[in-house]
Every structure is written in structure tokens, then in C-alpha cells.
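Running log. JK asked me to keep both predictions on one page so they can be read side by side. First protein, sequence followed by its C-alpha cells:
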Amino acid sequence: MTEDVVGIFGGSGLYELLEAAEEVRVETPYGAPSDAAFVGRIGTRQVVFMPRHGRHHTIPPHRINFRANLHAMSQMGVTRVLGPAAVGSLQAELAPGDVVIPGQYVDRTWGRSDTFWEGPEVAHLAAADPYCPELGDLAESRATKSGRTVHRHRTMVVIQGPRFGTRAESAWYSQMGWGVVGMTGYPEVALARELGMCYASIALVTDYDAGLEGRPDIAPVSHQEVLRVFAANVDRVRSLLVDVVAALPQERGCACASSRLPQDAAE
């Protein structure tokens, strides 16, 4: 691929994004990605789609080979990445069905391979502002125009999974002022930025995590409820992704390319 390519990670229900998609297997220095890449177009834009958890959702969040996934995207010429995800709300004003475009993340995972730099050469990613402002602004604009309730610049706390949080953990995150909680937002964004890619998360709120303090009428999250709410909104998520990709400027107007570390471990 020689043109500017957009990458999208996602799950079931999003395969229909691409027109006449071709299945492509990619080998990486970091092992096998979650699945084959599906290469096609949204309008005139070349797009690579990859299911994070495998096409049959067989890979739990803590077992995803994020390095292989991002490196495969890079090998295929991807420079901008959209990461749709289901998240739980930690604040009353972030309701199920709302869209959140995070501006920050808090990493509460452990044991995940989260850098391409493992020595003997050492490099440090500047991650103060991890998400692409251009992609984030565009996602916010398109979601607002579609009539969705959108929340920008909220913080996503990323937990290890696959279990959901306890009431104490959820209350802690909420009291810290963090907006939403998910299991796949990290290290995807950090690895993308090590490769100089733009990255934006488009988070769909599916639940209120372990419930809200003082609200006994709100039940704690269940896997079944997450799937139900996401399925009810998947058409709108798909439509939003199509709108964002179609509205992308041909050339990047941000500084994300400069975040690329001088070389990654595979080079």
C-alpha cells in the first residue's frame, strides 16, 4: 500500500464497514495478530479492519497481542487508527448510549507487552497527550451532527479484565473524576503513538459499571447487558465510523507523526 491508510479495531457487527473486503494474513516480529486483516474501502479511503478479540471473540482483553496488531497495521501502511470500544460509565451524566471521546487514560493493567522498546536500546514515549486532537475533534463533530450525546476530553481508566470491577474499585475511579472504564484502551493507544500513528478512541457507554453510589436502582454491569446495549447501537457506531473516515482530510494536520520513536524494535 502506498496511499494513506486508516486502521480500525473493532468487534462483531463492524465487518460490513468495508466494501469488497479482502482478507489478508500478516506476519509480525511479535507473533500473530488477533486475526486476519480485512482490507477494503470506505468511499475513496483505503481501510484496514482488524477484530481485536478475533472474529469469533475468542481472545479475552488481557490476552490480546496488541503489539502484533499495531505492528501489522503499520506494515500495511496505516497512519491513523480508530479504536471503537464498549465502556462502562463512572459518572451519572455519562449515560448508556452516549459516546465518549477520551482525552486521557489511566493504566490499571499489568503484564501486557506495552512497548516496542525492550532494550538494549532504550527510548521513552512522550505520552502527556496520548490521543490525536485532529481525529478526536473530527469524531466529536461527526457524532454531534448525527444527534448523539457526545462527551469530549474525559478520562478512560483501563482495567486488566476479564472480570468487571468491584463496587469499591468503581467508587474509587468515580471519586477520582475519571469518566469511563474499559479493558482494551491500553496499550493500544501507546503502541500506536510509538509508531507515529494518530489514534482516537470512540467509546460507546453500555452500562454504569458496578452501579452508582446512592442509586440502588442501577444494577451492576453484566456481560449480557454490555452485549445487548452494544448490539442495539452497533448500526450507529458503524455509521459514525464511516462518517469519520469519509471526512478525514487527505493529509494529517496534527503532530502525531513526530511521536514515532526513532526506530522500533523490529527495525
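And the second, directly underneath as requested:
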Amino acid sequence: MKIFDNKTILVTGGTGSMGRTFVRRVLTGEMGTPKKIIVMSRDEGKQHYMRLSYLHKQVSTDEVVYNNFKNLLEFRIGDVRDYADVCSSVKNADFVINAAALKQVPTCEYFPEQAIMTNCLGAYNIVRAIREHGYPVHTVMGISTDKACKPINAMGMSKAMQERVFISANISAPKTRFMCVRYGNVLASRGSVVPLFHDQIKSGGPVTITDERMSRFLLSLDVAVDTVFNALLHGSAGEIFVPRAPSSLMTDVAKALVGDRKIEIKVTGIRPGEKLHEIMISDEEAPYAVAKGEYFAIRSMLPELNGGDIDITKSILKKEFSSADTLLDYAGTVALLKRHKLMVDDNASFGDDELIR
């Protein structure tokens, strides 16, 4: 029996890039055949088109739209900021994947209170619903980001607090397993660097790099989902799963995508709240990191959750895990982009759906 067999899975923020890829993968049955997948988000338009894209080939439009609660894939309009909305969706769920987020760094810098409400209060509402009502949720998985590690911007700070909200919930709501995954730049997700470079190339340039030394972890949406699946299968309460992803210099990514085109690559200067390198495990977290297959798992610093048996002399990491540590060369970067079908085709259209694989 697989972990999702006959289970109800709630995906908050399920119409986003990661949420849609997660749903697509769950529907393949690789983790088992679920009883129900609930997509909860605020955007009725995205829900409508996601509903049609999955169900339109099976039944007529009216049957798709008006049988929402009978379908395997169910859509709910709701907001993680609203406790009542969260309760109505969480109460029947076996697994909760919290992909709802404000994730754009500049947006969160200008509106940090909004980042707090979605990224922190949203997580708290999930925990509160389970704790106060005793909902029998098996696992809650928080989707975090490298920016939560040693955060220097409002988005990262709010995500770091989200991690702590979920991890500490294992003590106050011990019948549910609360965990997180943390990963870096997802190739082709909305707002990430590769779609930006594609748009700049289509417009004739320039392609903008903020600093020639800048490096980033690079992983696909499917690798991000693989991380979630592995955490669900092998993770313990309070752990943060981190993929051992490759990384590249942003100059190499830009050069690979530009190719032989006569397009300028322009250095514009580092932006507010931006790091030269992504860090997925800090120096302070390194003693708590253990190897789990192709992933690191950061054990909780709370003694109630790690059993008080952390031996820092046996840590597999002696320093922070940074994108500067695992740099691909230029040829490796080209190969990675080709493998994920992200090289620019002069005749291609790079809409969001084409980029999400």
C-alpha cells in the first residue's frame, strides 16, 4: 500500500507552479491512488483553467464546472489567512501541503505585513485548526525556501518563521507530523530567473545580471516535488528536507540561453535583499543535518523533537551548504538546461504552461 492510497490531500496555494506540478504528479498514482485532492486558493480564474486542463478531455464543460465536489480533483476558493476557510478545508484532510505563499522578494519588502499574514499567519491557522479541533491530519508539509536560511529580506524572514511555526507544532499537536522542505531557485517557476531571461531574449535584450559572481541552485519543479515525496516517505517530525541540488553561475545560465544571438548581457548591480549565493543550510544548522539518501534532513533544534542525542562531532556537514560549493561548469550548465528543455527556441512561445514541466 502506498502512502496516498485512499487518502485526502489538501494543497493550499495549489494553483501555483509547484502546486500544479504536485497535483499532476499525484494524479499519476506513483504515491498511491488518493480518495480526493483538494486545491485551495484565492484565484477563481486559475482554478477554472486548472480544472479544465485536467478534466475537460474526460467530460463536458458543464459537468466539469458543476460536479466539483464529486470529482477526484476538487477546487475550493479560500485563503490561508482566514481561519474559517482553513478549518473547512483541513478538517477532512489526511495530508496538507502548504504551498500558499507570497514569494516575490520586492513585493514582500514593500508589503512585509502581507508576507506575515500569508506566510506566517497562514501556517499558524493550519496548526491552530488541527490543535483546537483535533482534526486527524497525518502530515502537514510546509514548502519553504533557501531565503529562510540566514534571511536578509522580509520574504525569507517570514518563511523562516513559517518553518518554526510548523516545527514547534509537533509539540502542541503531537498526533500530526509537521515537516518542511526547503529548496532553491526552481527552474521555470513563475517569477524565477529563467523565464525572466527568456522574456528579455524575446525582447531583444539586454539580459540583466545583478552581479557576475552570483550563483544559484537550479532544480526543476519535478525535483521540488520529488523532495516533498521523499520527505513524506522518509522524514521525521520536525525535520526540514533539503535536496542536494547542483548550482551554476548566473552568467553561465545567461550565456547558455543567449547562445549565438547578438544580445547584450548587462550587469546592473545587486538588488536590495539579494544574496550573492544561495544558502540552504547555515553554519548553525549544519550540526543538525543528517543524510537521507539524496537529501539532507535538518533535525529540529528542540530537544523534545531530536531526543537530545545530537552529536555535533559526527555531523556530515562542517560548514554551511551554499550554491558556491557545488558549481557546475559552463558545459554542465548547458547540459542541465537542455535536460529540462529550457534552452530558447527562436520559434517557441514561452508561456507559463509551456515552462512548467
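Observation for JK regarding the second prediction: The CA atoms of residues 228 and 340 lie 19 Å apart.
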